[in-house]
Design goal:
This protein is of the alpha/beta class. About 30% of the residues lie in helices and about 20% in strands.
C-alpha cells in the first residue's frame, strides 16, 4: 500500500493538469483499489480481495452480473459489465422474458453511481454524524411515539421489503406504508381494481392483435410501466397480418410519430370521442362524431384482435378497459398484471390530513422528494406540516428540497451497491445484487429497518436470502438462491391462485354515464403534462448524459419548454427563429391558471402536429438543488399538476419580453426532397416488386443515367469475397421507434464526453450516433405544420469502402481496415477537419476542448470518481482530435480473441455493437457479412434493404431497410 503522502502527491499532480499517462494509470489504480477496499470495514458478503484473484475474474476481461435496476420511476432486468471492480456498462438481461430492455434512463443510471455530489455520510440536524448517533437518536424517538409512524415511499415492488416492513410493525404496530409517486399511476390502478378486481396495471399482450387504437396513451414512451416497444415491433413486420396503429393525441409523442394514422385533438375532444365509442361498443348508441363512428366500425370488424389504450382521467381508463372486455380483446387474455407501480392517491391525501391534524409522530421518507414534486397548492402546506413532526428521516442518495428540512438524512447506496428483490409482474421475481462495494458511508433502507425494528437478522442480505429460500425458491423454476442470483430472475406459480379476475361488469352502473360539463374560459388552453423519454420523473435530473440527450421529437436538450401548435402561436404572435449562427431561438411566456402565474418565462417551441387549443409541458425539470441546476433552465411542471391530473384546463399564456436560445441539435426538419428515409404503404409493398418502391438511384454519366454498380470504377469489387471477417450493420426503419437508447449505449461504451449547453448551441455535440427526425413535406405548408408524418433514422459512421474521409486526410489518421471498419488512429490526427468537411453523412466529431480535464466541462470526466465510469478498452480523446463510430471495434476484437482461445468458430449474433445489443426493438443488426448464414447477410439481401446516399458511389457498410406503414 502507498503512504498517505504519496496519495496526496498523486492528487496534486492530477488536479494541476500535469498528469502523465503513467500518473493517470497509477491514479485510476489507486481509485479502484480504494473503493474496493474501503467497504471492507463493514460486513462483506462473498467478497474476495484481489490479493487472491478469483479464477473467474481476469484483469483486462469484463465480468458480468445479473441484477435489477430499480429507482423511483424505472425497473429493468439488466446485466452489469464490470472491469476490475468498476461497473462501466448496463446491458439487457435477455434471460428475463419481461422488463428486459434498457432505455436511455436505465443505462444512464450507471453515471449516478459515480456522482461526486452524492451524500457521503449521515447527517443529523444539519451536521455530519455517524450511524451510531443516528441509530441512537431514531430509536430514542421511536420509544416515545404514541401516534402514527409513516413510511412515505415511491413505488417499491420488493417482496422481501414488504415482509420486512410487516416484521417492523410487530415492534411498532402504528407504522403505515404510504406510496407516493411523483407521477401518479393511481387512476389507472383504481380503474383496474374496479374492472378486474386487481389493483395493478394490466399487461397488454400484442402478439395476437391486429389493431391498436390509442387515446392519448404514449405506450411507446412511459405510459406503461414496462416498455411496450418490443411487443409492438414484433407485430409490425411487413406482412398481411401487420398490426394497424391509430393514435389520437394532443402532443406529438413517440407513439404518434410511429402511428399509421395520427389524429391531433385536444384532450377534451379525445375524451368525447372515446366516450362515444364506449357507448357504441357496449350499448349500441350511434356516435355523433364522425371519427368515433369510423373507429367503432373498425373495432367491430376486428373484434378481439383490437386493443384500446387510453390515458388521462380515471373514467378514460375505465372506458378503454371496458371496451377491451366487451370485445374480449386478445391483449388481456393471459390475465397478467404489472406490479411495479403502487401509487395510491387516496392514501396519500389521507396522510396529508393526518399531517395537518398532528397525527404523525415520525415520518420516514424513502427515495422520493415531495417538496419538489407536489403541486404548488399543497407543497407549501406539506413543508409546514413536516416541520412540526417530532421525528423526520430522509433516505436518499442526494441532497434535495425535502431532506433540507428533515432531522435526519440517512444516505442510501446506489442500486448497483445494494441487495434486494422486485416483484414486477404476476409470477415474476427478480434479484438485486451489488456489483461494487459501497463507495461512501451509506446504508440500505432495509438495514436501518432491521436495526430500528429489533429484527433478529444481522443484515438485509441474510433476511433476503432467508425469505427467498423459504417463500420463493421452492415454488420457482430454480433450486437455490445462488442459481436465482446467477440468472437474476425467477418464475413461479405463486400468484396464480391470488389473481381472481372479475369477468362481469355492472351494466346498470355504466349505462347512464354522462360526460361532465366544465366551464371553459375564452382564449384558454388545455395543458397536457408528459414525460420526456430522457428525463422521466426527474429522479436523474443531475445526470449530464440525460440532460444532453436529445429529445426524439423536438431534438432539444438541456431543458423543457411549452410545445404549441403553429396556428395558436400565430394567433398569440409567438415565434421560433434561427439566429445567424444557426441556433434556434424562441419567445417566452408566463403560464397562468386562475389568474395566478404558476411558471414564469418558459420558452415556447412550435411543434408540428400539436393539437390546436392544447399545449404540452414535460415533467422532471426545475429542481433547485444539484450541480446541473445552474446549467439547465428547465421549469418545474409539477407546480401545476393539480390533483395529479396530467390534463390541466383553463390555462392561459402571456408573452413576456424574454427570448430563449435552445440547445437544439437539429434545426433542419425536413428531407428537402432527398431520398434519405424511404417508406411505402403495406398494400404497395405486398403487391408490387422492389423496383417500384425501393428504386436504386441513377447518376448522370456521359453515357446517360446509370446505376452506380454499372459504372466499372465503382461496381468492379461488389461481388469480391473478402478473407476473414467483414462487418456490416443494418438498421430496420420499420422497427426503429426513435427512443434513442442506442445514443446512450454508444456514449457509455465509447467514453463520449458531455460538452454542455453552450457547446450544443454551437452545434458541437459529440454523440457518435444521432437519430435524425424528419417531418414529411407537403406542397401545402400549413398541412405540414398541422399533422406531419414523422420518420426516424439513426445515423452513425457508414464505414464506406471508398470513404471520402480517407482520401483527404493529410496524415493518414483515418484508413480502412480489412474487416470493413473505417479506422481512426487518434495519435496521428492533427485536427485539420478535412475529413469532417468531406463526409456526406456529417458523423465525425471534433474535440474543440480537452473535455476530460478542462474544468469548464465539470461533468463526469473531470473528477476522479466520475472517471471510474470510463471504459478502459477505449481511449479518451484529447483536444484537436477527430473521433467517430468505430462499430465497437474493441468488442469485435474481444469476441474474436475469446473464440480463438476456446478454439471454436464464432456463432451468429455473438458479434454485437453497443447500439445493437441495447436496442429495445432489435432494429439494429450487426454481424459478419462473410458468414452467409448470418442474420446480417439475410438482412442485406432483403428486398427492403438500401444504402443511404448510395448514388455517391462510396459503398457504405451500413444499410437501412425501408419503412412500411399499414395505412388506414
Amino acid at each position: 500500500m502507498k503512504s498517505n503522502k504519496e496519495k496526496i502527491n498523486y492528487v496534486k499532480v492530477f488536479f494541476n493538469g500535469k498528469t502523465s499517462r503513467r500518473d493517470f494509470l497509477k491514479w485510476i489504480g489507486f481509485s479502484t483499489a480504494s473503493v474496493t477496499l474501503a467497504a471492507c470495514k463493514g460486513p462483506v458478503i462473498k467478497s474476495i480481495p484481489y490479493i487472491v484473484k478469483p479464477d473467474q475474474i481476469n484483469l483486462g476481461n469484463p465480468t458480468y452480473y445479473a441484477t435489477t435496476m430499480l429507482d423511483s420511476f424505472d425497473v429493468a432486468s439488466v446485466l452489469v459489465k464490470t472491469r476490475e471492480g468498476r461497473p462501466i456498462k448496463i446491458e439487457p438481461n435477455l434471460t428475463s422474458k419481461y422488463f428486459n430492455t434498457t432505455s436511455a434512463r436505465i443505462q444512464s443510471s450507471l453515471l449516478c453511481l459515480y456522482d461526486e455530489k452524492r451524500l457521503k455520510f449521515p447527517i443529523l440536524k444539519g451536521k455530519k454524524s455517524s450511524w451510531e448517533e443516528i441509530d441512537k437518536y431514531v430509536i430514542q424517538h421511536l420509544k416515545k411515539i404514541d401516534k402514527k409512524v409513516i413510511f412515505l415511499s415511491c413505488s417499491f415492488p420488493s417482496y422481501s421489503t414488504k415482509k420486512l416492513f410487516n416484521d417492523f410493525k410487530k415492534s411498532h404496530p402504528n407504522a403505515e406504508w404510504v406510496t407516493y409517486d411523483a407521477i401518479s399511476y393511481s387512476k389507472m390502478l383504481d380503474a383496474s381494481k374496479e374492472i378486474f378486481n386487481v389493483r395493478a396495471f394490466p399487461f397488454f399482450d400484442l402478439s395476437e392483435s391486429e389493431l391498436i387504437i390509442s387515446f392519448d396513451a404514449d405506450f411507446l414512451g412511459d405510459w406503461s410501466p414496462e416498455n411496450m416497444g418490443k411487443y409492438y415491433v414484433n407485430r409490425r413486420s411487413p406482412k398481411k397480418s401487420m398490426i394497424q396503429h391509430i393514435q389520437i393525441e394532443s402532443n406529438m409523442s413517440l407513439s404518434g410519430a410511429n402511428a399509421d394514422l395520427r389524429i391531433p385533438k385536444k384532450p377534451s375532444e379525445i375524451r368525447k370521442i372515446l366516450f362515444q365509442i364506449f357507448q357504441k361498443i357496449l350499448y349500441g348508441k350511434e356516435p355523433e362524431n364522425e371519427i368515433a363512428n369510423k373507429i367503432s366500425t373498425l373495432i367491430n370488424n376486428k373484434g378481439s384482435k383490437s386493443v384500446i389504450l387510453a390515458d388521462g382521467d380515471e373514467e378514460s381508463y375505465k372506458y378503454s378497459l371496458l371496451i377491451n372486455k366487451k370485445i374480449n380483446s386478445n391483449s388481456l387474455k393471459k390475465n397478467k398484471f404489472i406490479l411495479s407501480k403502487e401509487s395510491n392517491d387516496e392514501k396519500f391525501f389521507s396522510f396529508i390530513k393526518d399531517l395537518e391534524k398532528g397525527n404523525v409522530d415520525a415520518l420516514f421518507i424513502h427515495y422520493t422528494n415531495p417538496l419538489y414534486s407536489l403541486p404548488h397548492y399543497i407543497s407549501e402546506k406539506v413543508k409546514k406540516y413536516i416541520n412540526k413532526v417530532p421525528l423526520t428521516v430522509s433516505f436518499s442518495m442526494n441532497k434535495n428540497e425535502t431532506n433540507e428540512i428533515t432531522d435526519v438524512v440517512a444516505p442510501i447506496p446506489h442500486w448497483l451497491e445494494s441487495w434486494g428483490d422486485t416483484h414486477t409482474l404476476s409470477n415474476i421475481y427478480t434479484l438485486i445484487q451489488p456489483t461494487i462495494q459501497s463507495i461512501f458511508n451509506t446504508r440500505q433502507f432495509q438495514d436501518s429497518l432491521i436495526l430500528w425494528g429489533n429484527i433478529k437478522e444481522k443484515n438485509f442480505y441474510d433476511y433476503l436470502k432467508k425469505v427467498w429460500e423459504k417463500n420463493i425458491i421452492p415454488k420457482s423454476n430454480v433450486t437455490s438462491f445462488n442459481e436465482a442470483l446467477f440468472h437474476g430472475v425467477v418464475e413461479t406459480d405463486y400468484e396464480k391462485q391470488k389473481i381472481n379476475i372479475n369477468n362481469e361488469y355492472n351494466k346498470k352502473e355504466y349505462n347512464h354515464i354522462k360526460l361532465s360539463k366544465e366551464k371553459i374560459l375564452k382564449q384558454s388552453f388545455e395543458l397536457r403534462l408528459y414525460t420526456k423519454i430522457g428525463m422521466g420523473d426527474g429522479n436523474q435530473y443531475n445526470n449530464p448524459w440525460l440532460q444532453e440527450f436529445p429529445d426524439p421529437i423536438t431534438r432539444a436538450t438541456w431543458g423543457n419548454y411549452i410545445t404549441i401548435s403553429h396556428l395558436d402561436a400565430k394567433k398569440m404572435k409567438l415565434e421560433n427563429w434561427n439566429s445567424v449562427d444557426g441556433a434556434l431561438n424562441g419567445d417566452c411566456i408566463n403560464l397562468i391558471k386562475d389568474g395566478k402565474v404558476f411558471i414564469k418565462d418558459i420558452p415556447i417551441l412550435i411543434q408540428p402536429g400539436q393539437a390546436i387549443g392544447s399545449i404540452g409541458l414535460a415533467f422532471g425539470y426545475g429542481q433547485e438543488i444539484g450541480k446541473l441546476t445552474q446549467l439547465c433552465n428547465g421549469k418545474n411542471g409539477y407546480k401545476i399538476y393539480d390533483n395529479f391530473n396530467i390534463i390541466q384546463k383553463n390555462i392561459q399564456i402571456k408573452k413576456t419580453y424574454k427570448t430563449y436560445k435552445f440547445a437544439c441539435i437539429q434545426v433542419q426538419n425536413t428531407k428537402l426532397d432527398r431520398d434519405l428515409v424511404r417508406d411505402v404503404d403495406l398494400k404497395t409493398f405486398l403487391k408490387y416488386p422492389k423496383e417500384i418502391w425501393n428504386k436504386e438511384e441513377k447518376i448522370p454519366t456521359y453515357k446517360g443515367m446509370k446505376f452506380i454498380n454499372d459504372i466499372p470504377s465503382f461496381g468492379i469489387e461488389n461481388n469480391e469475397k473478402k478473407e476473414g471477417h467483414h462487418f456490416k450493420l443494418s438498421i430496420d426503419l420499420n422497427s426503429c421507434i426513435g427512443c434513442g437508447s442506442c445514443v446512450i449505449a454508444c456514449q457509455s461504451e465509447n467514453n463520449i464526453p458531455v460538452v454542455g449547453k453552450e457547446e450544443i448551441k454551437k452545434s458541437r455535440d459529440m454523440h457518435w450516433v444521432r437519430v435524425d427526425r424528419y417531418y414529411s413535406t407537403n406542397k401545402n405548408q400549413e398541412e405540414n405544420y398541422d399533422n406531419p408524418k414523422i420518420y426516424f433514422q439513426p445515423v452513425m459512421c457508414q464505414h464506406c469502402d471508398y470513404a471520402p474521409c480517407e482520401t483527404v486526410c493529410p496524415v493518414g489518421a483515418t484508413s480502412h481496415g480489412e474487416q470493413g471498419q473505417n479506422m481512426m488512429a487518434y495519435n496521428r490526427c492533427v485536427g485539420t477537419r478535412y475529413c469532417a468537411n468531406n463526409c456526406p453523412y456529417k458523423v465525425r466529431r471534433f474535440n474543440w476542448f480537452d473535455y476530460a480535464n478542462n474544468k469548464k466541462f465539470n461533468f463526469n470526466m473531470n473528477n476522479p470518481l466520475g472517471k471510474m465510469v470510463l471504459n478502459p478498452d477505449v481511449v479518451v480523446r484529447s483536444r484537436g482530435v477527430m473521433e467517430k463510430c468505430s462499430l465497437c471495434i474493441q468488442r469485435t476484437q474481444y469476441t474474436i480473441s475469446v473464440a480463438k482461445k476456446e478454439n471454436r468458430s464464432i456463432k451468429d449474433r455473438e458479434f454485437e455493437t453497443a447500439c445493437s445489443i441495447s436496442c429495445p426493438t432489435n432494429a439494429i443488426t450487426f454481424g459478419d457479412f462473410n458468414d452467409k448464414n448470418s442474420l446480417i447477410s439475410k438482412k442485406l439481401e432483403d428486398k427492403r434493404s438500401y444504402k443511404l446516399l448510395e448514388f455517391i458511389g462510396i459503398r457504405p457498410n451500413v444499410s437501412y431497410q425501408v419503412k412500411v406503414r399499414n395505412e388506414i
